Amino acid sequence: MAIRVKTTRRKVFEHEAPMRVVAVLGGELSEEGRWLDSSLDGALGRILKESRFKGEFGTSLYIPLPEVQVLLVGLGKRRGHRLGELRTLGVKIADAVVERGVREAAVENFLAERFGKRETSRVLAEGLLLGGYRFTKYQSGAKPPRARFVIAQGYGPATERAAAVVEGVWLARDLVNEPPNVLTPIELARRAEQVARETGLEARVLGPQEIQELGMGAYWSVAKGSDNEPRFIELVYRPEEEPAQKLALVGKGLTFDTGGYSLKPPESMKTMKGDMAGAAAVIGAMKAIAALKPPVEVRAYVAAAENMISGHAYRVDDVVRAMNGKTIEVLNTDAEGRLTLADALAYASQQEPDAIVEISTLTGSCVVALGREVAGLFAADEALGRAVQRAAEIAGEKVWPMPMEPAYKELLKSEIADIKNVGTREGGAIQAALFLAEFADAPFVHLDIAGPGFASSKEDHAYGPAGGTGFGVRTLVEWILRQG
Ligand code: BES
Ligand code: ZN
Ligand code: ZN
């Protein structure tokens, strides 16, 4: 992605760029805006007065003057701002710049006097980079956007950190946006290995034989119906010094979910290429971690597979055995994610991590509960749950705690095996979380991103275009950096 952010010591009016972006605060030009206005002989003030532009938060007024293009952005009232609002503002500015094909924009470091220029530079840069993302690979004639943003009076190192995180988000979005005929489990593994090569991570990839030899019977049962072979992917980041902690990330990696013999209706099958959004999030997070180098060890695991129908696909009524020895009665082949995750969690547990955070597009039930923009957070360990929730707040990703109601464990009792893969419809997301917790032998948090992992329309999320959102990358990275 040729979208870049840098900083300058100069003011907006001093930096030569075809577009200048300044704020309207409490209905008036900001200080940067007034400097720019005097360099333009008061043109901005006059136009602002004549216009009906009130400067409400997130609105903008585009003013193409003969000498320069100006974008006035509304910051609403003078008081009461939250730092995170600068991220959504950055997204909107980037959208305006990219859609107009502008190559360079000098942007005011909004609210720097209120929050400090380091924090405002970081959050604004995140928004600009997130908002400039486009997936143009399969559009003949379309070029990927090119734009450079220069934050006036900004703090350089903060924008570099933002860029490292957002490159992880871009990667996650790219992986989700790839069509499922391209991004098979084999291709997902290849991309993960490529990231490892480029960043110095270790990568290990296992195929069908090793998966079966390790006793990953639950994962294998889902995978074996497809002609596209499964790949179990492990990425390892080791700090230079002795790590203070060992952390594990696990992501659901269904490169396509037809539902299997419990077949999905056609409408529900649309967007199921995004059923690997959890895997994309952990791979994206690992890319950022490799760049940011925290003092903790991080391992990411993805049991990549495709849920298909064939003569060798698994059935309803099958009983399978996971790596930790537990037997599972399969009563719905569309509840496949938890089967692949059962083995990924059991495998991750063998390393005795201090914490496992798992992220998956797991249940439609969670979307019913929380809608398309909010992820469900299920904590088997309270302190870990709070830490992940806090990280999400700081990262500007919406998550909400859901109960791991122990009474509902009854609903997963099987007549013939240790557990069954579905219970009742009511509280389905909670039952799914309880199921997963049976296979995680370490402090455990589950994030259900079935809603926010994929945006069917632009209105479905605040940080970029429709398609893969990269949800989770920012939360995971923030959580890991706060452990160090
Ligand atoms: N991948 C789906 C969950 C999903 C639904 C993700 C909508 C994104 C948007 C998952 O594998 C699934 O099909 N879950 C079933 C579980 C049920 C059979 C217990 C569901 O939610 O209906
Ligand atoms: Zn499914
Ligand atoms: Zn699924």
From TrEMBL:
Binds 2 manganese ions per subunit. GO terms for biological process: proteolysis. Its EC number is 3.4.11.1, 3.4.11.10. Its cofactor is Mn(2+). Residues 332-339 form the Cytosol aminopeptidase domain. SUPFAM superfamilies: Macro domain-like, Zn-dependent exopeptidases. It catalyses: Release of an N-terminal amino acid, preferentially leucine, but not glutamic or aspartic acids; Release of an N-terminal amino acid, Xaa-|-Yaa-, in which Xaa is preferably Leu, but may be other amino acids including Pro although not Arg or Lys, and Yaa may be Pro. Amino acid amides and methyl esters are also readily hydrolyzed, but rates on arylamides are exceedingly low. The active site is at 264, 338. Mn(2+) 2 binds at residues 252, 257, 275, 336. One of its GO terms (cellular component) is cytoplasm. PROSITE patterns: CYTOSOL_AP. It is an enzyme of class 3 (hydrolase). Keywords: Aminopeptidase, Cytoplasm, Hydrolase, Manganese, Metal-binding, Protease. InterPro entries: Leucine_aapep/pepB, Macro_dom-like, Peptidase_M17_C, Peptidase_M17_leu_NH2_pept, Peptidase_M17_N. One of its GO terms (molecular function) is manganese ion binding. It comes from the Bacteria. Mn(2+) 1 binds at residues 257, 334, 336. It is found in: Cytoplasm. The keyword Metal-binding applies. The keyword Hydrolase applies. NCBIfam families: PRK00913.1-2, PRK00913.2-3, PRK00913.3-5. Presumably involved in the processing and regular turnover of intracellular proteins. Catalyzes the removal of unsubstituted N-terminal amino acids from various peptides. Belongs to the peptidase M17 family. This is Probable cytosol aminopeptidase. It comes from Oceanithermus profundus.
